[in-house]
Amino acid sequence: MKPINTHQLKNIKVNSFFELKSILLLLSFFILQGASNVFAQITLTNPNVTPAYAVTDVLLGQGVVATNITFNGSPFLINNPQNSVREFSNTSAAFPLSGGVLMQTNGGSVVTDADLSAITPNNVTNGAILEFDFVPDGDTLSFSYIFTSAEYSSFTCSNFNDVFGFFISGPGITGPYSNNSQNIAIVPGSNNIPVGINTVNSGSASGGSGTNCSNIDPNWVANSVYFTTIYNSIYNNSPAITTAPNYNGSTVELTANASVICGEVYHIKLAISNVSDQSYNSAVFLKAGSFASEPNIVISSNNVTSNYLDTVIVEGCDVGSFCFERTLAQSLDTSIVYYELSGLAIRALDYTFTNLPNSGDSIVLPPGVTNFCLNFNPTDDGFYEGPQDIFLTAYTINSCGDSTFSYADIWIVDKPLDLITDAGADTTVCSGGTGTLNGTFTIPTNQIKWTYTGPGNVVFTPDDETINAGVAFDTPGQYEFFLTEKNDSCALLKVDSMIVIYEELTFNVSSDTTICENGEATLFANATGATNFEYHWGHTTDLSANQSIMPASQTNLTVFARSDSGCVTPTETIVVDVLPPLGLSSTASQTICPGESINVTSTVSGGNGGPYNYTWTDPTGAIVGTSNIINVSPAVTTIYTVFVSDDCESTPKVSTSEVVVAELPAVKFGVVDGEICTPAEFVIFNQTDPLLVQDTYWYISDDQVFMQNDTINVLITEAGVYGVRMVIVTPDGCVDSLSINEMLTVYPKPKADFTYYPKPATILNAEVNFQNYSEDADTYYWSFEGGNPIFSTLEDPKTQYPEGVAATYEVELISTSMFNCKDTITKIVAVIPEVLIFAPNSFTPDGDELNPTWKPVIEGIDKMNVTVEVYNRWGEKVWESHNLDVGWDGTYGQGGSLVKVGAYVWKIQATNLINDDKYVWDGVLTVIY
């Protein structure tokens, strides 16, 4: 035997082989029934794990030696605990990794890495980068991992996904990354497509366009076979790795592989980072002991006989084997595999080999042979010994001259006794058609299978070979289930049966209903699908199907049915609504005037909503109406009573309404003076009792109208006879009136007028005669200011004014009719002077004081309306004036030059002082120097 290389032996790690199914199956031999409910979760086993420990003591498997470990590019951080590199363990069978190294962005520091940046177009932020050199013993490197992220549910096919990669470099490796490294975290079967959120997902875009995923891998939808969400509940139950939000999607367990050369030095970088931000974290789980370089020879153990058992063989029933296998490429030369046997089972006593190639402790694989299986039979000794294992340790010498080790084991168990199989007690499955079978069987490693007979189909979940399978029925009825337990190696078989009655209950109850006040509701419940039922009402202990209730207000009644077998229907609620009681109101007290009619109205609410029954009566009990409105015209104040009911059980209601007949006053009015001359103003006043008057309206026959006045002043300018009508409105709104025809008489007024002559009178002819032009007058009275006589009653008098005195005098005439109506007129009589003019015929404007100006003098004219003009002999105007007090000084023009000596023509225009008659005078004057 070649001695073992102690350097290699020191670094050998036993992998998780002892955690395989064989041990679980062995232990299950001692458990006949029952299960333990363990709260499955992922925990962080050691808070003080350092990156160096995570690599050498957790991640590395057999055939690999690691050196030069760094974390985030620093060799000094590897011996300090880091939040982003932790050791985990798992207690859930649903999560395929029982333990290992967790690399996460959560808690990671900011990193920079060219290789991660090459995978994403965006900036990497925080994460973890673990690097080390290693020397493989074999020609391949592999390790197992699961990638997970909180970005799966919202950012699939977006541009902001977190990234990770396993970048390996060394002899024989060429890639696009730094140091010619190659990313071995790739989609299985792809052309180096990196594993990521946009390449391995559910196959549906959730945060971006599917084009973003297609640009990376056109086959991204098919990659969904490598994606799962079944680990999400484990993440949610694992507070040690909880992030906000939690991880919501993962890859299945994947393997990173690389071809290597034994004995050569390789470098690997395990890197993960957030992208763009530091939220929505991601992580990668690295399986413990899986970072390994496979030995030249792979050893496996098998149960040759049983199709069900694997690494367990039964005494007297099964044949076991250890198989030694190498690759076709390794079969060019002869390989010698040395092995040692250990364990609880003793060779030759508990088992014997049947095809030993030699008596030694080695297997020889000649050229061209890739495998050899060493078979053995367990000894059926009839004794109960408990499980016994055979542990085989094999080693070979690789091409580097080092010893590489492989291991395998198998368990021998005692031949089972008679089977004790129990399908469980008969039971009932209620509405919904699902239940769980509760059978037990003798040995958990035996095969079991459920079969059935019945009226319909049954679906088993997860399958019909699960002892506590869920069952779903599609047809109600009685089913018989058969539980078959068998051991194919030992030809053991046992069948037990049980009955399942599937009751699909239907349940109908009364519809919601409405009753009146004082009414009764009759309710029912009816269940089908079983023979007998009890009906459990929420308001009573009575279990009858029918119930009668008389609630005072809305009531919610609950009821469910229970069959004899205990199946219960859903609880139903019946709403019994109670209509409100009748509400009645009738018209409040109303007042009418005598002879009027009025409507009296009743308003009803509640009850059954109508139609309602109405009965109106008067104080004598006589019925006066049967509808909600009556029209009445009582002669005196009367109270009416209405009785209302509905066609339900509501309590009838009564209401009363009063109709008051108002009092009318005696209408009366008068006038202060009913006969007046025009323009006549009459004073008319109301004499009606003021307590019975609210509004007053007056109507005069000449269409004059007055309102809201007890006394009115009526002005009439046209002579004639006029009538008056007064309308009053009482405080109760009653209207009455009084009309008096020819109440007002308006007499015509005479028209005074006169004239006189001469006109005008002059100071030399001052006697004036008056001519009377008055109309409709009988007598006259004249007043003459300054005259003689001073007054007169003659129809056409005359008077003498003082002679020689120019003045104006007032004359007043009062004309009186036969009705003593008067008219007065006043006029002015003017006595004017005679018109006199003096115009000099020459003057001397020579500068001395003698006769220097020419100034005419005129009397008897309007001196405010006079024009004086002087013309030369050529007809040119040389002077003009409008003021008789200013004379001409003989000059003309703007320069004030004296005119020449000679004759000049003057012209004077003026108006009469009294009547504006016009005067024109002209003459000749001579200028002398």
UniProtKB/TrEMBL annotation:
Lineage top rank: taxon: Bacteria
Organism: Brumimicrobium glaciale
Pfam families the UniProt entry points to: CHU_C
Protein name per its UniProtKB record: Gliding motility-associated C-terminal domain-containing protein
Gene3D superfamilies on file: Immunoglobulins
